[in-house]
Amino acid sequence: MNERISGRQFALMAAYVAIGDSMLVLPSIPINDAQQNAWISALVGLAAGMMVVWLLSAAGRLYPHLTLVQAAEQLLGKWIGKAVSALFVAYLFLSIGAHTREIGDFLTTQMMPETPIQAIHIMYAGILAMAARLGLETIARTGEFFFSFFIVFLAAFILFLIPDIKLNNLLPVLDGGIKPILRGSITMTAYPFMELAVLLMAIPAVRKPQAIHANFMRGAFMGGAVVLLIILLSILVLGPDYATRSIYPSYALAKKINVGRFFQRLEVILAFMWLLTSFIKSAIFFKVLQTAIAQTAGLRTEKRLELPLGMLVVCFSLIISSNIIDFHEADHYWPYMDMTFSVILSLVLLAAYAIRRAARRKGTTGSGNKGKD
């Protein structure tokens, strides 16, 4: 990987991946499980998620000059490494297809109901292909440029919602016990944090490998804090019942804004923030998918893969589910797929590294003793 990004850009990429589509579609899931205690689920998920990021960072620092695909082949051997890489490629492809479908479902149900979803998917996949052609460095710089706008819009969004906050929506606390809270924390851990495994493919591009851990943790915490804040606002403003029934609680929050009967229905603020974070996240996934395919297949270059990948993404996004309700049924099993390619894969790589290191030390010690004899 010849591209180079700064530690700050890597941290912001982690923040974008953590926020991404989670800002719009995640809040209703833990609220459905834990009701008014979903903010506690979010806190638990944030703590667990930071441990996941620590694990990902540890795995990424084993070989900071290698991508995840290259490190898997280095540690697990050629054939097992290729098999793991192929499964990781399939995971990336499924994720991009799901992100594209979320964009299409949101725009056709909330903003442009008369527009065919196929047209939205084609345009979105085309933009992702263009971003991949420009490279990871360009994507990182774009995210860095727009992040200040995102913070300003987020601050305005929170400020305008303060008059509608009802603290009674948080009561009663812990009335359903601990099980619903733990159930709600699963998705809060998976969607913002476990999907950060994608950045293990971008670590070789970071200019200062020694700063990877700090930036990884900082960016992930920033993104998790934003998601936690959105979940808390959804409960405080909408109430747990309304937030559970809504597919897009944060978009419903934007409709509540009414300041002096002048600033009203500022859904465009939320739509801009979500489309921005979702696009940067999808662009990172698309570029990483392109690189992973090239390295797994042993191609000399990853160029010219953008168009066929874009076409495949469009086709898959249309057949992934029959409707929006069916699509959101994936929330029951998707976190476990995220766990497989983040927690389990990282543990496997760390274990393989420890075994190889122990075997190397044993071989060195044995050679030394033999020489003395």
Would you mind describing this structure in some detail?
With 373 residues, the protein is mostly helical. It has one domain: Amino acid/polyamine transporter I, CATH 1.20.1740. It has 16 helices and 2 strands. The chain has a two-stranded antiparallel ribbon. The model has no long low-confidence stretch (mean pLDDT 91).
Strand-helix topology:
Blueprint: H1 7-19, H2 22-25, H3 28-34, H4 38-60, H5 68-76, H6 78-111, H7 117-134, H8 136-161, H9 179-193, H10 212-238, H11 240-245, H12 249-256, E1 258-259, E2 263-264, H13 267-297, H14 306-319, H15 324-327, H16 334-372
Antiparallel strand pairs: 1-2
Helix pairs in contact: 1-8, 1-10, 1-13, 3-4, 3-9, 4-9, 4-10, 4-16, 5-6, 5-16, 6-7, 6-13, 6-14, 7-13, 7-14, 8-13, 9-16, 10-12, 12-13
Indicate the mean pLDDT.
91
Give the CATH topology: Amino acid/polyamine transporter I
**Which residues sit in consecutive blocks of at least 5 with pLDDT less than 50?**
none
Total separate domains: 1
Shape: globular
Total number of helical segments? 16
- Rg, rounded, reads 22 Å
For the largest sheet, list the strands in their spatial order.
1-2
**CATH class wording:** Mainly Alpha
Number of strands: 2
Keywords: Germination, Membrane, Transmembrane, Transmembrane helix, Transport
Protein name: Spore gernimation protein
GO cellular component, one term: membrane
Membrane topology: Multi-pass membrane protein
Short summary:
This protein is mainly α.
Which terms would index this structure?
mainly alpha; Amino acid/polyamine transporter I; 75% helix; 1% strand; membrane; transmembrane; transport
